[in-house]
Specification:
The protein is mainly beta and 291 residues long. The chain has three helices and 26 strands. The chain has a domain at 221-291. Strands 1-3-5-7-9 form a five-stranded parallel β-sheet. Strands 11-12-13-15-17 form a five-stranded mixed β-sheet, with no helix packed on it.
């Protein structure tokens, strides 16, 4: 095939390739956006010649256990293997030049291995970084460690980097000055007090002046919102049952406004007096919307 030609495997074509064991025929250069979206396959073979695995190509393939990434692939798109919860290892070969955010955001990943000759990416203890380890790109959700101290070389934590991570404590050094909005899904965050951009309190993650609430521990059933907060990252409530937590906030504060807007249960804290506000909530209709 002429190297200038592109042949995209579309979702319609992908559905003709079988149900559980999929062998993609030779001749394709791209696996298109959401080509295998929400399929029940267990394994897929990608042939040499494919250069691009596009955004969401295998999104929600919850039973996918095995996929090979051939040496011809140079780009893996955003959310390419997102929610592939049976996929536990990923190997990044030497010729991959770009990886989209959230490419490996799933609940089963244990290890990411990068070829040492790759000039763009690296791995340490199964965690994916850019080459010089200034950006933490993906932390395997099932890595067997209850806490993680982010290296001092890291200045940025990518969007969805800790997606679904089974981790209790994350220590953020003063070198980190940029964190993606959806970098964390739970976990107690502890920020070095010398960090110029972020702060923490009781495991909650804020920007430096605590006007933006970025992350809360996943198991929190009482959520305290300081008066200083004027912005809340909606993703920290993604898919939550609003009947299983209560927001504690101050009257006429942003937290109060937020709780009323999303019809969440809340308690007002004013001068030591707590007033319970009871709201009838339909759990199926009032769950915080998923992204």
């Amino acid at each position: 095939m002429d190297k200038t030609q592109h042949k995209v495997l579309t979702e319609e074509e992908a559905r003709k390739l079988g149900e559980h064991i999929v062998v993609i025929p030779e001749g394709y250069t791209h696996i298109g956006q959401k080509a295998f979206y929400c399929r029940n396959m267990i394994a897929v073979h990608i042939p040499e010649g494919v250069t691009t695995i596009d955004d969401g190509a295998f999104l929600f393939c919850d039973n996918l256990e095995y996929v090979n990434i051939p040496n011809s692939v140079t780009h893996i798109g955003m959310n390419a293997f997102d929610k592939c919860n049976q996929l536990n290892t990923i190997t990044i070969h030497a010729d991959i030049t770009s990886i989209g955010e959230g490419a490996f955001c799933n609940k089963g990943l244990q290890w990411i291995e990068v070829d040492k000759n790759n000039p763009y990416f690296s791995s340490e203890e199964g965690i994916l970084f850019n080459k010089d380890k200034t950006t933490l790109l993906a932390y395997p959700s099932q890595r067997k460690c209850p806490f993680y101290l982010i290296p001092s070389s890291v200045t940025e934590i990518a969007d969805c980097a800790f997606g679904w991570a089974n981790i209790r404590q994350i220590f953020i050094p003063d070198s980190v000055t940029k964190i993606g909005d959806n970098a964390f899904y739970g976990g107690h965050c502890f920020v070095d007090t010398n960090n110029p951009a972020y702060s923490s309190k009781n495991g909650y993650l804020f920007n430096k002046d605590q006007t933006y609430l970025i992350n809360i521990p996943e198991e929190a059933d009482k959520i305290f919102i300081p008066k200083s907060v004027n912005r809340i990252n909606l993703m920290i409530f993604e898919g939550c049952d609003p009947l299983k937590f209560v927001i504690y906030c101050y009257a006429n504060s942003y937290g109060h406004q937020f709780a009323e807007e999303y019809e969440l249960q809340y308690v007002l804290i004013d001068g030591g007096v707590q007033t319970q506000i009871n709201i009838e909530v339909n759990v199926w209709e009032r769950t915080i919307p998923k992204r």
